[in-house]
Amino acid sequence: MTALDLDFVRKAAKKRPATVRSLDKMTVLQLARRTVIFTVDAAGIAALMDAARLDLPGITTNRIVQNVANHNPDVFWAIARRDHYAIEAPKGEGFLAALPLTHEGTRRLIDGTLDTKNPDLACIARQSERPAGIYVWCIHAKGSLVAAIPLVLQKFSAPLYQGVNIYSRPITKEGLRVLEPLGFSPGARYDGLYTPHLQMLDRSHELPVAVAAEPVDQVTVQVVRSMDEMARVMAVRSAVYMGEQHCPFEEEFDGNDFSATHLICHVGREPVGCMRIRYFGEFAKFERLAVRNESRNTGLAGRIVDAAIELCRKKGYSTFYAHSQKRLLSFWERRGFTRMQGAREFVFSDFDYVEVKFEAERHPARITLAEDPLVLIRPEGQWDVPGILEKSAVRGVAPLANAG
Ligand SMILES: CC(C)(COP(=O)(O)OP(=O)(O)OC[C@H]1O[C@@H](n2cnc3c(N)ncnc32)[C@H](O)[C@@H]1OP(=O)(O)O)[C@@H](O)C(=O)NCCC(=O)NCCS
Prior knowledge:
Helices cover about 30% and strands about 25% of the residues. It is built from 14 helices and 16 strands. This is N-acetyltransferase domain-containing protein. GO terms for molecular function: acyltransferase activity, transferring groups other than amino-acyl groups.
């Protein structure tokens, strides 16, 4: 729903060439001189919603908006005229609320089954999660406050949101045209679905940074998910351990490779390093760290270990254990590991080793049993991005599942 000053938007739009469509290219600095946007607490949301209800009697309840903003604080943006804004007691004069929707939420928005008066929180992406679509939920911005709309929409131009289409469903006649000057056009689509009842700002040409053309020297560290990636790990380990350190095949591939997580490091498309992680009740064990000879001393091993620590912390581990070749103790120490108290020293596969340990802080957002089941089934390490199985949920229960 939308309540705002159309003339102001039209005048602002006329100042721009008609071809300019990207939010990035708008005269945001000019607009920002007049208005400020900021987040508010539950009471602030209630006050702004109560004021909006005088113009928009049909809007949803304060409690629902507060719950959604609690789920994702990027949802609700208060607006004030710059000369009325005081940091010591920030008071909104209008607002824009937008729903960052998951894949399922965006599908339901387009097919008309999303209850936008009381949206299911499972359909709303969390703050650190890339949404599949953004829905302009409600705008109350009268007079010059309307200048803040592009400011709010520009919040959704951060890398996390780049390329994500923005949708709106204006109820009033004014609202039908108000977003047009910002690049919205009638009709909306997503994932093969189409509706004429929404407007859409098509941002599909603004590719997210991660999808943009990959520089040839880009370093990536990823969890191994396929046989092809596992073959790359085995190639690196064969070169490093069997080739350089003359480790016999049966000692290098010791029967523990199928009870582990493997990380593979690439520079561009070339596999250059890897590490194996095995999990025990109280700790995660890092082993088989290897970087190809020609790629060494550029910090790659450090990046692999850091990525492993982050992955394991997210899984709930905070104690990390490794067997350091004695000559490499300083490498592990630079990553936070220390020689364990009473550390045992031992020899295997022709090298002498010592036990090292790192006690990290518990990850504040580690996975727990309270986690959404659909988040738990996402690919390891990609718990912030909707996974393939969420997409399958739209198929519902197959008849076979209920048979016999
Ligand atoms: C150990 C290894 C993984 C380091 O990879 P890397 O990408 O070169 O490591 P980084 O660039 O992140 O760090 C380099 C550091 O490693 C240490 N290091 C690497 N090779 C070393 C060696 N032969 N002797 C002593 N220290 C060594 C150094 O401390 C160096 O630190 P510097 O910055 O002071 O020079 C790589 O040399 C390798 O694969 N070695 C053979 C396999 C192996 O021994 N694995 C370790 C089992 S515990």
